[in-house]
Amino acid sequence: MKITGVELADLHVPFTPHTDRHLKYWLPHWHIVQICKITLDNGVVGWGETIPNYTWARVPENIAERIVGRSPGDLLWEDSLGAGVQMALFDAVGKALGTPVYRLLGAKVREWCPLSWWAMDMPPKDWAIQCADAAAQGYMSAKLKARTWYDLHAAVQAIIKKVPPQFKLDFDFNGTLDNAANAVGFIKSLEQYPQVAMIETPIPHGDVAGNHHIRSRIDRPVAQHWGDPPIMTALSQETTDGFVVGAGAQGLQRQAIACDLANKPFWLQLVGTGITTTWAAHMGAVHRQAKWPAVTCMNIWESQLLTHPIELRGGYYRVPEAPGLGIEIDLKALKKYRVDYSWVDPPRHVYRYTRASGEVTYYGCGKEALCWIYPRDAMPIAEAGSNLDVWEDDGTREFAKVYEAVQNDHTLRRVEKGKKNKKK
């Protein structure tokens, strides 16, 4: 059994309309999904996908010369081949052997894997829409990008009016609470809501003492990314209750073994459409500590790229039992979305932060930079009545003037009391 061919194709898969209203300014390059098709000499075809502008490993340019003519079984655990190729290899070998992928990965410990909705930071009413959509589609938890430039109490209150009481919220601050003093006080204020389940990265991981202090003071589990700080530091200094893991099959296996020995749960963070989500389910089926809901972001795209879309029951996805990944690729969708480019730029815009007092601050940086610029400037922590919206280039002289003023990480601050918010 040898590999006779490998084909790669870039797709531009649109986000769902409501997601696109926000995500097009931050991660428009996530529109690009790279599909991998591997063909064996017995006619078996394996499929995989890579989100090339995010994933843990892109497919190398010389992939054909590295794998064509070789046995797929010899290559399964080579993470350096990239996400899509590795998935496709496991899919092809599983089909050739008539066995599901999870049996190639290890011994099954569960049949149903928990899966979480994902949403970027949004105003309260938009988070409420996202979570209502999640609940309607069978999800029972959402991992949300919590940001201190929004009124997060108003956001939680808006959400819980729209979802079942069992629906859980996991808040990922990406370090924007800045320090332990901020984090403990604010997270304690969220403990009044039983729906708030977990806190990820409240402050930068490098502040080991601060993270230990937070974990010892709050009444919610804390999650950190695997490897930052180093695993032995995280365990010995008790900085976290569990981990966010994401890697290739070999790397993830190593992380999962360590988590099992330390009795630390984790969530799988393997981003992609229905193809990657199914791969994550096979991973979750064999790794004992994959107990927290996996985050694949499948919900952000308008298509799962599958002929039979994944359906959740009570927040869980049943691991397929058919050979390989156990899914059927939607070939019509692949043809529909295929493009000859691999990057998408955001529209020109600025961010407008407003406070109830009427004070407004404009930012010209992207959301990644805003995560450190906002706390650097000692801005309020989720102040009541605060909000962040987007002002897209509308061709006016006013926009051009503000845009020019906030380049190179500068900010523009002024009072606009009574002025209507700019349209998104």
Q: How would you describe this structure to a colleague?
A:
With 424 residues, this protein is of the alpha/beta class. The protein has 3 domains: 3-105, 2-Layer Sandwich (Enolase-like, domain 1); 112-321, Enolase-like C-terminal domain (TIM Barrel, Alpha-Beta Barrel), CATH 3.20.20; 349-415, no CATH class. It is built from 14 helices and 16 strands. Strands 4, 5, 6, 7, 8, 9, 10, 11 and 12 form a 9-stranded mixed sheet that branches. Helix 5 runs parallel beside helix 6 (152-160) and helix 7 runs parallel beside helix 8 (208-217). It is globular. The chain starts with a strand and ends in a 9-residue tail after the last strand. The model is unreliable at 420-424 (pLDDT under 50).
The CATH homologous superfamily name of the largest domain equals: Enolase-like C-terminal domain
CATH architecture tag of the largest domain: Alpha-Beta Barrel
The biggest sheet amounts to: 9 strands, mixed
CATH class of the largest domain: Alpha Beta
Give the terminus-to-terminus CA distance: 55 Å
Oligomer, anyone?
single chain
CA radius of gyration: 22 Å
How many H/I helices?
Answer: 14
Helical content band:
25-40%
When the domains are counted, the total is: 3
Strand content: 15-25%
What is the residue-mean pLDDT, rounded to a whole number? 97
Low-confidence stretches: 420-424
Structural class by sheet pairing and helices: alpha/beta
Q: What is the CATH fold-level name of the largest domain?
A: TIM Barrel
Number of strands: 16
- Overall 3D geometry? globular
Spell out the helices and strands N to C.
Answer: EHEEHHHEHEHEHEHEHEHEHEEHEEHEHE
